[in-house]
């Protein structure tokens, strides 16, 4: 079932086109990975979908509802957003920060069920021991996990994540991606996630959207999209794509070791 749909979307910063003719959909229970080089428009696309940026044209809909016609509080009950860079100079604790994910549902007081949702999200991201630490005291990787927990506590139908694993070590990259994919499948969430690591994206995303210079170059399952030709065209490097595991993975070939060079 299609949950999130984007059609004919375009965006420009003043007179500089950044996105053009973007169209895709995300099913309930699906993780869609956005991949492509720096500056290809992944972050801008995520912000347009969330409504942080207003497209020049196009439509973003969730279950048929045009998000541009909805109040921000209503949108916040449907879509959660985890930004790429996280700064926090306040004295908020981890628990308080994750509790902010419940804002779309809060009136004058915090209910027991809100606290339960926060505790559940903290446990999923292995943050229980940090619950009463101030966020500004945490490492960059810990802060990213806190923001993902906040998005989970928000209990939306879709989650947008912009490079959520960029500050994490390998162990936590795997753990976070496993949580994201499991939640998508178990709770029928539609997830859009920008990922730089192609192997990580191929291992945990149901489908990949390959971007280059603001347009879509490929859209399909990792085994179909992650090819040596596509990697060469989009990233400008040579790579060998292996298929001897459950998911495809690529091995970059250093320029000095390409065939015919010594």
From TrEMBL:
Domain ABC transporter, residue spans: 4-238
Alphabetically ordered keywords of this record: ATP-binding, Nucleotide-binding
Source species, domain of life: Archaea
Molecular function via GO: ATP binding
Gene3D superfamilies xrefs: P-loop containing nucleotide triphosphate hydrolases
Pfam families from the UniProt entry: ABC_tran
Matching CDD domains: ABC_Iron-Siderophores_B12_Hemin
InterPro entries reported in the protein's UniProt record: AAA+_ATPase, ABC_transporter-like_ATP-bd, ABC_transporter-like_CS, P-loop_NTPase
Protein's name in the database: ABC transporter ATP-binding protein
Organism annotation: Methanoculleus frigidifontis
């Amino acid at each position: 079932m299609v949950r999130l749909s984007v059609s004919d979307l375009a965006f420009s910063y003043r007179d500089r086109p950044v996105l053009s003719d973007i169209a895709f959909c995300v099913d309930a229970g699906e993780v869609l990975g956005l991949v492509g080089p720096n500056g290809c428009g992944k972050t801008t696309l995520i912000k347009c979908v969330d409504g942080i940026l207003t497209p020049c044209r196009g439509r973003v809909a969730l279950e048929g509802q045009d998000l541009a016609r909805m109040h921000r509080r209503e949108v916040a009950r449907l879509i959660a957003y985890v930004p790429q860079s996280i700064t926090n100079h306040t004295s908020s604790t981890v628990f308080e920060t994750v509790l902010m994910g419940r804002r779309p549902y809060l009136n004058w007081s915090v209910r027991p069920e809100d606290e339960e949702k926060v505790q559940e999200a903290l446990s999923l991201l292995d943050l229980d021991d940090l619950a009463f630490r101030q966020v500004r005291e945490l490492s960059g990787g810990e802060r990213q996990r806190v923001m993902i927990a906040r998005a989970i506590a928000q209990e939306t139908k879709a989650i947008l994540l912009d490079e959520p694993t960029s500050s994490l070590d390998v162990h936590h990259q795997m753990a976070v991606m496993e949580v994201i994919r499991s939640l998508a499948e178990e709770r029928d969430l539609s997830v859009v996630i920008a990922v730089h690591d192609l192997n990580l994206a191929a291992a945990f995303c149901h489908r990949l959207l390959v971007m280059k210079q603001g347009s879509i170059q490929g859209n399909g399952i990792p085994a179909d999209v992650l090819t040596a030709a596509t990697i060469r065209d989009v990233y400008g490097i040579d790579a060998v794509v292996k298929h001897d595991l459950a998911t495809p993975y690529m091995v970059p070939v250093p320029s000095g070791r390409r065939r015919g060079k010594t």
